[in-house]
Protein 1
Amino acid sequence: MEDVIKKCNKIAEAQEATARELLSDLQALEKESGLKDVESKADLPEELEKLRTENAKLKFRVNVLLRSIAEEKAKAAGNNVRPAKGMVSIQNAISDLFDCATKEAFPDLVDCPVVVLPSQSDNFGDYQFNSAMQIAKLLKEVGRKVSPLEIAKAIVEKLPQKDLISTVEVAGPGFVNVRLNKEYVGKRLTDVLLEGVRPPDVGAKKKAVVDFSSPNVAKEMHVGHLRSTIIGDSICRVLEFVGHDVLRLNHLGDWGTQFGMLIAHLKEKFPDYLSVSPPISDLQEFYKESKVRFDSDELFKKQAYNCVVQLQSYDPDTIKAWNLICDASLKALNVVYDRLDVRLIPRGESFYQNLMTSVVKELEEKGFIEMDEGRKIMFGPRCAVPLTIEKSDGGYTYDTSDMAALYHRLVTEKAEWLIYVVDNGQATHFNSIFACGQKVGWYDPAVTRVEHVGFGVVLGEDKKKFKTRSGETVRLVDLLDEGLERSIKKTAGKRS
């Protein structure tokens, strides 16, 4: 059976390619001839009449090919045999059968809608085909008045006989009720019992990079981090289940100006940090202490800025202090990830520091950099706001870091699918990053998928977004503790 499926898929892929070429020719002919604006055949000159005839032939050939594709799919999904790879979607299999029947019943219609949904009531069978009304509208647009009821009957007459369907009946104004063959369903359930739930066949295995969670180092995770973490992990689990090679990346905020104040505070509070590991148990409190000093003590602020310079210069003692803070933070983060059963590979902003210089150089050499009051900026196609690639003082930004990360994932990791799971507030930023990456030539969207999966943000009691570096926030561990406590009480109440 595996050889049969491979053969069917190969034939279907070849025919789909030919169908796409024919559709392209068809659209070009329609545009050239202006047939949609012509009222009658008498208005057409001889040359345009020839084009219209060719147009009709193309439509017929396209539908013949599409019908053949549907038939090949039906052979792989509808036969009463156990599939060699993946589980069969019964809904998709039925859709393929109706797609085939629709194209045979109405070969002159291109892109005919085929909607098959589970029935809302047992009285209407197991599934229902609901496209007759839409097809009636399409036919009316080309001058054919056919009732939805007649359309439904015509499609049912062309429906291939397959083992998964027991009966079909036309009901109401043109609905088609489908009842499944119980023997077929029994065999599919037996497959599940014997072999377990198997993923569907989704085609070639891809290397996917999923960027999610991404808290800041030296700050505890709060409730605002929960959505990205859970949504990102869920996406990873689905991609892994269907067979893709998934790299789960945690783009930690582990570099930048804030580390100057943290390192300066560490050096003063634990002067022997080079020989004795400092007991940084409460990172939240440690961060607050350093932030208060940074905002109120000018001398400390200067020391913090000096530590930033030392960090960026890779001063050994400063790097040691930075590593201590990062290690303590990762230890605390992993406690939360373990509770959530989430796996992540930490790869923060610091990972891309050495790469940023070469990325900026490439952008300059290819002529994509513009100067703006001393800044080096880059505009992406159809992007109103540019990326700041380099500040006027020569420093790099989050834009630079994200461009370097995009380069590494596409060019070095050779990922075929990038997914960034970040709140919708960052949508404009990522649109610019992706547009600039495409402009440079790092990826072709027709070949490589680069996507932002956005979601709504968690708001505080003041209806404002949680900010990672301000005020009191609800710690994620406290939320998990409260959730567990409530569930235990509720369960205990039911048991008693």
Protein 2
Amino acid sequence: MQDYSRLMAFYIKTKSWLDVSKLREEQCCDFDKELLLPYAQWLAANGNIVKALEVNREAGYSERNTSLLNFLIKNAIAQECFLEVSKLYWVASKENVSIGLAKTGKASEVMQTKMSEQTKRLAIMYRIYSSIIDFSLGIFSTLSPETALLSCAYLLNALSCSHANHGIDMPRLLFIFAELGRSHECFQSTRAAYDLIACDFHEYLCEELKEKLSDEMMMIESYSNRHKISLLVKTLPMEDCEDLLTVCFRCGASQSLLRPDGDYCSCCNAVIIRCMITFHGLPLIEFVPHASLSAKKALDTITRFSTAYPEKLFHDTINLALTTEINVYHPVEVGSEILESFDRSDVYIVKDSKGDTKYYKNMIKNVGIAKCPSCFCFFHEQEFEFHCLKEGGCPICDTPVTENYGHI
């Protein structure tokens, strides 16, 4: 071991990084792993972040990984490389899971799992934000104006129920949404966006941001009297284009584009499940097996049985749940009889990093739905397959899809 340690120290001192890599990968070589720290720093400086994190863990410096990722994320945000920010957050999410597994305490594992869920959420948000900014700047983008409008609405709703915007430029996002909303005749939502700009603009404004503002933003700031903006807004009709409104498939209520409480149904409080490419609502309803059924028993029941009447019993259960709920959302609870009526091709199961299992039922058989096995986002099946064939991976997390991405 001592000879290999001396050899490794020599390679590192002479910056022979290729030799360091070869010696590290040789299974028979036993050396002091702490010597690898300069190698990890060199990897990070040259953009090989994933390998640098791996070497840090091997050298016993896992605590450095969090500070390294935070530093890189702050730099990427400052340089407005938002797609890179998203990729770094995905790496940070996996790193949090690794740290949680390495710690023995239950509390530490739970805390790291929560951090992993938070970084996943930020990764998704910055991926969407990156595509919106590219669209607004006229950079080549696959987004259509309608998709850009819906993705803006999704991101604003997600940020509205958060205590921090995590570096996302809210005034800029509101302006993009307002302009797209006006061109798509979504006047009610445009009015709401302009009201937010007029009321809260100075809350977001800071000296550092002023340099980045467009001419239109500077024009809004120059208005000393907010009443002028209100007059402009009040000339617009109080309605949105019905074709762009999302319908809750659980209770049938139409949803406005902007909702201050997040992307939830305003009537039954169910989460709106969206295709993360087009941002249209998907016909998915969450359900849970009865408490008397284990997860294994529920899965066996769904996969073994399928009756000739797959919809009626479940519709009756949904209606019963809607009549008994009072301002509190609960997934529809189903027993073995209803599970037996399900067609397995309509059931989707999501197991998150917390170990929780969520069940979803597709209410429209003709609508193909895909689920990424890595980030657990849902998509229209044709859109997902086309993107995977074109880009080689998931539209949100870029993970190559090598396993089943459909129903159970």
